[in-house]
Amino acid sequence: MTGVKHMKWWGWGDEGIAFDHRDKPEFAPFVERAIGLDVSTATVPVPAFDELDLPASRADEAFHAQLTDIVGGEHVHTDAMARVVHTFGKSIRDLLRVRSGTLSRTPDVVVYPADEQQVQRIVELAVSADAVVIPFGGGTNISGSLEPAVDEERVVISLDLGRLNRVLEIDEVSGLARVQAGIQGPDLERELSRRGWTLGHFPDSFTHSTLGGWIATRSSGMQSDKYGDIADIVRGLRMVRPNGVVVVRPVPSASTGPSIREMILGSEGRLGVITEATVHVHRVPPVRVVLGYLFPTWDAGLAAMREIAESDASPSVTRVSDARETAFSFATRTRSKGIQSVGTSVLMKVLQRRGWDLDEICLSFIGYEGEASHVRYEKKLVRRIVRRHGGILVGKGPGALYDRKKFDTPYIRDFLLDRGAAGDVSETAAPWSRLRQLYDTTMAAAGKAYEDIGVQGWIMCHLSHSYHSGACLYFTFAFVHDDQPVKQYDQVKSAIQQAFVDSGGTLSHHHAVGVEHSAWLAQDVSPEGVELVRALFDGADPNRNFNPDKIIPPA
Amino acid sequence: MTGVKHMKWWGWGDEGIAFDHRDKPEFAPFVERAIGLDVSTATVPVPAFDELDLPASRADEAFHAQLTDIVGGEHVHTDAMARVVHTFGKSIRDLLRVRSGTLSRTPDVVVYPADEQQVQRIVELAVSADAVVIPFGGGTNISGSLEPAVDEERVVISLDLGRLNRVLEIDEVSGLARVQAGIQGPDLERELSRRGWTLGHFPDSFTHSTLGGWIATRSSGMQSDKYGDIADIVRGLRMVRPNGVVVVRPVPSASTGPSIREMILGSEGRLGVITEATVHVHRVPPVRVVLGYLFPTWDAGLAAMREIAESDASPSVTRVSDARETAFSFATRTRSKGIQSVGTSVLMKVLQRRGWDLDEICLSFIGYEGEASHVRYEKKLVRRIVRRHGGILVGKGPGALYDRKKFDTPYIRDFLLDRGAAGDVSETAAPWSRLRQLYDTTMAAAGKAYEDIGVQGWIMCHLSHSYHSGACLYFTFAFVHDDQPVKQYDQVKSAIQQAFVDSGGTLSHHHAVGVEHSAWLAQDVSPEGVELVRALFDGADPNRNFNPDKIIPPA
């Protein structure tokens, strides 16, 4: 056996774990109000696995034998389950398609190399046989970066990095760790924390995504304000190409022409297979705390985040939800603890007396790390800014709950999907001066799309990352779909994406391009910008063996 | 007239400004000890300008007329002075060659476009006529990024961006300024500071270099610890290509595949002509101060800088000189003020009583910016670390002097060159754990090279930038040359560069590749890494019209 675990073939996360609304009394009424769904409705059954309709594998025996020669027979898989779990990521489009029971194209064979040498031999075999290689990490991608093209006639190899999962070395003087690309988030943090270190990279997908996947998609995490996006964290890289390994040495900064490091970052397998990275690691700080705050309005919350970014403070998390997402957060509180303290009627009455409109309240989380004295200092700097914008501190309770629940959202999506509602996320980044207009445009565009398809849709937003000159806005949307869910979803998703690029935002802050966002690439980075990337891909992969058609749409 | 000023054709900086040692009593004896040069020796005369031997311009009348049609006759120059000042940058190799009186190849014509539209038309003309375009900013480059290949048979256009020198817009909410590429450092800071802003980018070349040049070479400045290297500062970009303009929008972070922004950064004109950038700007902080510190040894200084980088403090400058550079700094003090306070015999005697070896003393500068309370807080954090490593604070005097004199070093190089001594700089970056070994290897390699060429050479070093995982080490070297100065220089420079890459350092932290460093590119970024860059260049510029042969050496 490979020892590599995969998520449910039909949904997010581990078998046996699911969202349960029964201890959250406000959840059902909220969903009813938001998208008109009665959560006690009968669930839509997921098809039985053996009823799935898969195309035959195109990998013939000779090819299978060559792969077996490289990695050993137990690491070459052509069974239906291996092929299905390696076909898609976990976007709503992916889940809808896999639950439809028909997969038009799957990888023909899944291989699990043990080391870089085996990756090199697989890559050489693929190029000499004119096969397609699609590197696979945790399979959490939601931009279509993993799926084979439906009309791909060559053999498609899903190259699963799951066995390259070790922390190889920690340079304790430099704060650098050499780590294999296939390691998943929790395994990596456990290995590091055992020795007193942390990477500090916690994307929503953390529990199942891999270092290599983060790099290949330019991931960002919940504490990236402090630790940096993965593009900042990664210094050294190894990427296997047909004639050898690209080796980027882990220097802190370099003036060596166009950045090869920044070509590999975000390359989604189109340039080769990332096998290893040397990453920034930090001593686990003495204090790590996330505090909850409330702002009277979305504008006040945004303005406060901007001012914090401009100030001498440098918190690890800056997050504020719009009023709609705040209402959603309140609706997911359990009967007895945690976030309840925020939504208690006592506090609300106090705020009402202060003149707050309770429908406009925005929940914010700000995180602090470092020596205790440093955390105290930073909290003081932030408190002044929060006050200036009319906000109040509500304490550690909500922050601790946020910390505990932060990876749970995808399970809610499956819960809704089981009941006939489609939901997903879209995120962007833009300069501070554009954020409010971008937000308004996006909300209006989603509203118009819902109207056009005749549904009562929901959309909510939070600011998830702050930078000197701007921030990431993260939208979550859902609606009860009809019998053409992908078509309906496309209409809503397209309206949101178009609003992003029309408003000066990027097509994605940290979810990659894949095939889901490639239609907006030229609008985002300009047609001439696309030509530069095309020049790189065409020159580096003239026969299109490496995950073709991703990022730049086929001509 | 174009209104664009250029430096001396035979040296650094403005006419009439030169280094003067007469008020620095310790300078002459220091130079005598260091490289055996008597500075009162007769100076080597620079050749008269009209004795220079230039090749004829290959731009014929028809081509000249086409350029005139685009930019107007007064902005097309083929006179000897224009061609000479656009042939080289200001490396010691450049100065030695221009002072030799013979220029094997110069640009054939210099054009000064007024705007991006004119740049576009020049680029289109160049491609259609199969001419070569070399973008030119301030001409301060020391890596050979500007010179035409000696065997280039096509017409070579030096495209001087000097008229694109305006701050177009400041987005005060986002802290972003849209600025034309040809603006020089002082003009840019003056325009910004007039409105309360600063870019915070102060490379050694600041007084004469341009924004476009900084971007094209991946520049770094003295306060980059706080403001970031130019690669961090630049968000948006416009670069003219034969079929249009690459437009990178100023989003704070994006997940849009391989970074186009990071392809243009460091591209040295090989992908097109950078015309504009949108850059981070910051409110001029209430307090800006640089403090001087002394450490008993180089190891103590390096260890303190590393610990500061790891701490909760984030100073704007972290700099420490080795004992040799410290001695050089002491030797440049004037009779009456400034750095004298550091080197006073009273202080030295106190340190000696404490057990310091005065030959091992290392001078350090640490900068602080922000609100007064923040500066106090950071100074306190740093003071603890400095003390832990046996260092002492020596106050504001040396820092203020450093601030005043920081752009003067190139004038000293000219002073020495006038007297038959060749000097230049080489810098690198490496992980903290490699720095000491890199330093030792480099000092030994330079020593060996001096021995091989039979001269008494000098080399000294400072740490100039700190990062989480490493730092930049900046070496300055000089020796009295014989009648083959370039050959001798090459031997010393090559030894230093080879020591860098052999010790895990990069070929340059912030001076670019050009032709000076291209021999080490494959050793630094791996042969397969070079192939990625080559794929980009070949695809984007198939006929090699854009500053060919830079970065990647000709096959």
Automatic annotation (TrEMBL), chains A, B:
Entry annotation: catalytic residues: 474 (proton donor/acceptor)
Task: Give residue ranges for domain FAD-binding PCMH-type.
Answer: 103-284
The organism of origin for this protein: Phytoactinopolyspora alkaliphila
Binding of FAD, residues: 204-210, 217-220, 268-274
Q: Which Gene3D superfamilies match?
A: 3.30.300.330, 3.30.465.10, 3.30.70.3450, Uridine Diphospho-n-acetylenolpyruvylglucosamine Reductase, domain 2
| Organism superkingdom | Bacteria
Oxidoreductase listed as a keyword: yes
Give the Gene Ontology MF terms in alphabetical order: alkylglycerone-phosphate synthase activity; FAD binding; oxidoreductase activity
A Pfam family matched by this chain, by name?
A: FAD_binding_4
Q: Name one GO biological process term.
A: lipid biosynthetic process
Query: Per its Swiss-Prot or TrEMBL entry, what cofactor is needed?
Result: FAD
Question: In its UniProt entry, what is this protein called?
Answer: FAD-binding oxidoreductase
Which PANTHER family has this protein been placed in?
ALKYLDIHYDROXYACETONEPHOSPHATE SYNTHASE, PEROXISOMAL
The family note in this entry says:
Belongs to the FAD-binding oxidoreductase/transferase type 4 family.
Keywords for this entry?
A: FAD, Flavoprotein, Oxidoreductase
Q: Where on this chain does substrate bind?
A: 413
The feature of type site (Important for enzyme activity) is located at 319
PROSITE patterns recorded for this chain? Answer: FAD_PCMH
